[in-house]
Amino acid sequence: IRFYLHDQFTGSNRTSAVVLPPLNNETLFGQVAIIDDKLTKESPINSKLVGRAKGFLVLDSLSSSSFLQSMTVELEGRKGTIVFHGQNPFTESQREIAIVGGTGEFRNVQGYALTSSVGSEP
Amino acid sequence: IRFYLHDQFTGSNRTSAVVLPPLNNETLFGQVAIIDDKLTKESPINSKLVGRAKGFLVLDSLSSSSFLQSMTVELEGRKGTIVFHGQNPFTESQREIAIVGGTGEFRNVQGYALTSSVGSEP
Amino acid sequence: IRFYLHDQFTGSNRTSAVVLPPLNNETLFGQVAIIDDKLTKESPINSKLVGRAKGFLVLDSLSSSSFLQSMTVELEGRKGTIVFHGQNPFTESQREIAIVGGTGEFRNVQGYALTSSVGSEP
C-alpha cells in the first residue's frame, strides 16, 4: 500500500494544528500537533483522495528534527484502520515508522512503513 | 473480557480532565483529555468495580466525532495491563480499538476490542 | 539489553520538559512531559552513553504515582528503534512496560521491558 500524506499546517484548508508550542526554535522540541491529514494516490494534493491519517505528532528531539508520530490510517474502500506509532526523523531521506496494530480488515497487523518526504508547497 | 467504562468528565467525582481545549465546536478537533476511568462489571456506575482505564484521548477528526484513545487497562484480580491504542469514532454504534501490547498476565497480547456506547448520565 | 535512563528535568542540561502542568499536587494527574533522555551503560550519568529515549509521559493516575510512557529507544551501533508504550507506576520497585513495535533491526518486535528506579540526583 502506497499513499501520499499531505500535512497542511498553514492556509485556509489546514488539516493540522499546533496545540502546544515548541520550546526551542532549532528542533522545535516540545511542540505537539494534531492532524487529520489527507492521503492521496499520487503526489499532487489534488490527485485522488484515498484516505485520512488522524492522530498527533510530538516533537521530541533536542538534537535533530524528529517527531513521535501516532496516527491511525483509514483507506477508501477498506474497512478498519492501521495504527502507526513511531519515531519519524523527518529530514532524513527515508524513514521507517512502526505499525503496532489495526482493526477491521487490518486486525492484528504488525510491521513497519517506509516513508520519505516528497516536498513542501505553500 | 467485558467491562463498562465510565468517563466522568463533569461533577465532583470527575475521572477525566480536558488538558487542551478544542479548536472547533463541531468535532472538538484539537481537544486532549487525560483519563483514569472506572471499569465496572455491569452498566450502572455503582455496579462492581472491576478495574481502571488510564491514559489519554486526542480529538483528531475535522469531519466527525472521533478520538485516538490510548490507555492501559488493569483488572481486579489480574496482574498486569492491556494496552489499547486506536481510533474510536465514538458516535458509531459499535467500534473496534486496537490492542497493541500488554504486561504481566497480558504479556505479548495483540488484537482488538469491540466497544459500544451505552449512554450518558449526568 | 540493559540500559540506564536519565530523566533530567531540572538544571542546565535538562532532557525533559513539562509541557502541561499537573491538575493536583499529590499524583500530578494531568501533567504531560516530553523527553529526549540519555541512556547509559551503567548507572552513573557520566558512564558510557549508549542511546537516547525520545517520547512523552502522561501522568494519568488519580490514586497513585504513574504515567503512560510512550517512547522510542535508539541504541548506539544498532539501526532502528524500539517502541515502548505502557503504564509505568514509577514508585513501585519493579515495573514492566510494553514494547509494541520497532524499526530497522528491531522490526516486528513485541514484548515487554522490566524497569526499576535506581535513584535520583540533583
Automatic annotation (TrEMBL), chains A, B, C:
- Which GO biological process categories is it annotated with? phenylpropanoid biosynthetic process
Claim: Secreted is one of the keywords in the record = yes
Q: Is Lipid biosynthesis one of the keywords?
A: no
- Might you report a single GO cellular component term? apoplast
Could you list this entry's UniProt keywords, alphabetically sorted: Apoplast, Secreted
Show the InterPro entries listed in the entry.
Allene_oxi_cyc_Dirigent, Dirigent
Q: Where in the cell is it found?
A: Secreted, Extracellular space, Apoplast
UniProt main location, coarse: secreted
Family designation = Belongs to the plant dirigent protein family.
Which PANTHER family would you find in this protein's record?
NUCLEOPORIN-RELATED
The entry describes its oligomerization and partners as:
Homodimer.
Q: What does this protein do?
A: Dirigent proteins impart stereoselectivity on the phenoxy radical-coupling reaction, yielding optically active lignans from two molecules of coniferyl alcohol in the biosynthesis of lignans, flavonolignans, and alkaloids and thus plays a central role in plant secondary metabolism.
User: This protein is called what?
Assistant: Dirigent protein
